[in-house]
Amino acid sequence: MVNGTKYKVIDRLLYYRLYSGRTMIGSGIFMSPQFILAIIGSPGASLVIWALSGVVALFAALSYTELGTVIPESGGEFIYILRIYGSCPAFFAAYTTIIVLKPFGITVAALSVAEYVMAPFYPDCHPPELVVKCAAAVTILVVTIVNVINVRVAIRIQVIFLVAKVLALTVIVTGGIVKLVQSSSVIVENLKVENAFKGTQYSFSNLGLAFYQGLWAYAGWYNLNYVYEELKRPEVNLPRSVIIAVSLVTGLYLLVNVSYLTVMTPKELMSSSAVAVTWGNKVFGSWGWIMSVAAALSAFGSLNGSYYSGGRVCFVAAREGHMPDILAMAHVHRLTPSPALIFTTIISLLVLIPGDFQSIVNYTR
């Protein structure tokens, strides 16, 4: 609380225990598989990248958890750098997060939603770039309105879209299990030991780019640290939340990728702009559009969670004197950091104009 401004404390245990998982499971698992496979060159190596990315995310989450319990304040890496190293390094960290990392991440998630919303309308080709960007802009504005109006509305949306995420990924995993039992020719080509690692690219540049894409899919493990002051008993629930969430998400991502590889050849997977839609069309035929809707809802839920935390970073930086004072203000009745959220929206929309999914992910990672 500063200058009479304070957050609305979240006292719903289920919400913050699942928050990390909800923000992690979003655009990454639906948009990164084709890029990882194209970069690393083989199905087996792509699965290794997914697994190792999960391990890295878990270690990073544990480090953040330790920092969060020692420095019990909202703001994530900004507040930690400020308290440990001082004002100057924290200033650069704040501007990097507020101007680059968070807006770029929001833009990528919005592009993912737009790709999946538009995919059923363009079944034989990629949706036009202008159409996708317009849909992404509308998505960002909708999320802004929701988060500015009411914190609890944003929380309820998170819970609703969590159901969509779980259902979509459960359907994909189940479909993969069925295909594994049937032992199709695609499975033999992709997952048989002698074929799994054929064509792997071992150069440092390829490995680095593949990890960029993989780690993007796990982005979200740190979001609880941004809203630390809004949690109840965070010293107990923060460690539990991140350990359970990252571990479960890692296992789920591996199963989903195996499912993709049981249905699609590497060439089909790499050429797809919306992997879940291509998977759905092959498994469900004319009903494949259902996967497009489910993937879009999943990405929207992740975007909402990232947006929720991103506004808090800007709020805390302004509260500490590193951003204009107006960004440290909150709505008198709703207790939402409206100026900070609107500022994040403006930057995200500016990033959307020249950017595309892969270039933004590679830049921000």
TrEMBL record:
Gene Ontology terms for molecular function: L-amino acid transmembrane transporter activity
Name of the protein: Zmp:0000001267
Topological relation to the membrane, as annotated: Multi-pass membrane protein
Protein localization: Membrane
Keyword tags: Membrane, Transmembrane, Transmembrane helix
GO cellular component terms, A-Z: membrane
Transmembrane segments: 21-41, 47-67, 130-149, 155-181, 202-222, 242-263, 284-303, 340-361
Superkingdom of the source species: Eukaryota
Pfam families reported in the protein's UniProt record: AA_permease_2
Species in which this protein is naturally found: Sparus aurata (Gilthead sea bream)
